[in-house]
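For the sake of transparency, this paper describes our internal protein records without simplification. The tokens are whole numbers drawn from a learned vocabulary of local backbone shapes. One such record is reproduced below, unchanged from the form in which we store it.

. . .
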Amino acid sequence: MPRASSPRMSQGPSRRRFLTTGAALTSAALAGPALTGCGATSGGTPIELTFWTWAPGIEDVVDLWNQQNPDVQVVVSRQDAGDAAVTKLLTAVRAGNGAPDVVQAEYQAITSLASADAIADISADLTPQTRDRFAEGIWSNVNLQGESIYAIPQDTGPLQFYYRADVFEELGLSAPETWDDYAEAARTINAADPEMFLGTFSNADPGLFVGLAQQAGASWWQIDGEHWSVAIDEEPTQRVARFWGELVEEGVIDNEPMYTPQWNTALNNGTQVGWVSAVWAPGVLSGNAGSTEGNWQMAPLPQWEAGEEATGNWGGSSTAVTTQTRHRDAAVRFAEWLNTSTDAVQALVTESGVFPADQVESEQALTEPPEFFSHQEDFYELSTSNAESVRPFTFGPNVNVTYSLFNDAFAQATQSRSAEAFTDAITTLQEGTVADLENQGYVLS
């Protein structure tokens, strides 16, 4: 699966009343693969839905829908991912025309799009069974307040731990079960070879840090009616920052960004022998460190307390219905089919290479491990279990600002190699995020 990046999203408009308690779910349901109640127009012309998306191979997935539903035809309009997609949609919505019926949206973009009235609350349109197909932590990304639902999860990126099994075996190490174990393993590895590291702290990847804070119990934003609160500079996130800052200060973890030529070289030559990443990591390792195939193993993310089962999420996207659609019912039915039907979920795996968020269908769709991990037959069994343990997290309307603050503050902290600088960076994130919300007119509690 392609890297799930952490984009800097365009900012929505200032204060507005946009999150309300959703209506109760209706009992309407899909009756088999064919669409019920939202077919062709009165003149017999098929309904046409436009779908903005960037997923690879998605045209082949949509073709299945079009074959099964001649009265509702979906046209794929391929877009750039991340910031560009958000900006284009917001521009169309503000212009009053040009928006698609259905749009792929990354989880961290949903609040910004909802606040701009770009995507619709579809809670009253979903079939009752849809909610039960997704883990609570993933569903929290589309359930912004009360019963309001702004999208249907498509794929997800539960955090897990990747390590060079050959190096661990040579040094008599086992996969760390706790973060204390991880720190001890990092010390052992670096003591054996001062050029070898169990990982790096990358100031260029706020999405990864958010996932680590999420695992520790953090949720950086909360919404209560029209009142936002920001909870970045609190114990869970400070604990994560202090842990990594101390390892960087000690010199047993590297402090260079990921996804650079230097990082790729380190993966290949064995000076980077571990990676805290997401379920999509095999694709990155295959492309950037192909010479090490067969040497890596995946394990659940280390825990803060022995025996816990919690993780965070890094990456993934959902399917939302825009407020400009004139065919809302058909758009919702398509979005549900795309992310919960047997045919579509299987096609998303085989054609688009995603790790599906639907827990019901994913077990049958994920029967073979990724090629780079063909030696680990339980890869997807472990990954599915990890996905179930993703903790809830609420993204705010100014994620792009917070991520930019992260990049700047931690660029300084990592170069200083100071644990104190790491915790100070969290305070900077809190203050900057609050100030930005206030400047835009949001009401804070």
